[in-house]
Amino acid sequence: MDSENGRPPKAFIHCRTEIYRGRHFSFVTEDLTLPNGRRTEMAMVRHPGSIGVVPLFDDGSVLMEHQYRHCVRDYLLEIPAGTLEAEESPLACARRELEEETGYTAAEIIPLGRTHILPAYSDEVIHLFMARGLAPARRNLDPDEIIRTRVYPLERLLEMIADGEITDALTILALQRAWFYRHGVSGFQPPT
């Protein structure tokens, strides 16, 4: 413990080097001394943050995306998601990405919490939301987005998670949190 403020000590960064800067993230190395006194170098992804949205229709079905992901060379079943733009709030990003990727707007966006999806090598924080009161709008995909949408019952999606058909970690977590919210699971309190 840090004797001055009662909190555990953090790492001391001696030097930071940016190796690559892309459209959505950068890759850096840091020469640092860890809280245990060991000096080391770590490589990490610096990310502005992102959102994931569970678009829920009144009947309890969810608008999902089959999206081509080149890294895994396959289509994955996912919720709409995207990266925060400069100075954009997570809520504004959720509304923007929902409309751009699915062609729907929402009357209500409910926060479902946040998650650090890969904290071993990325500082990305993903803000999770559920969208209700969906209404058709104009879809506007980015040039590199290859997305087909399809509606599934939420219960079926949970079965697909259990069967290993859905493998995207963000989608799994967000669908589970949406189910917790809808079913009033004891102890689940999304942020207000």
Mean pLDDT: 93
Assign the CATH architecture of the largest domain.
Answer: Alpha-Beta Complex
Radius of gyration: 19 Å
DSSP helix fraction: 10-25%
Q: Given this structure, which CATH class of the largest domain is correct? A: Alpha Beta
Counting helices, strands and paired strands, the structural category is alpha+beta
Q: Which spans have pLDDT < 50 for at least 5 consecutive residues? A: none
- The helix/strand series, from N terminus to C terminus, equals EEEEEEEHEEEHH
Per the CATH scheme, the topology name of the largest domain is: Nucleoside Triphosphate Pyrophosphohydrolase
Described by strand count, sense and barrel closure, the largest sheet is: 4 strands, mixed
Terminal CA distance reads 32 Å
- Overall number of domains: 2
Which percent range describes the beta-strand content? 35-45%
As an assembly, this protein is single chain
* Total number of helices: 3
Strand order of the largest sheet: 7-4-9-8
- What's the shape? globular
CATH superfamily (homologous) name of the largest domain: Nucleoside Triphosphate Pyrophosphohydrolase
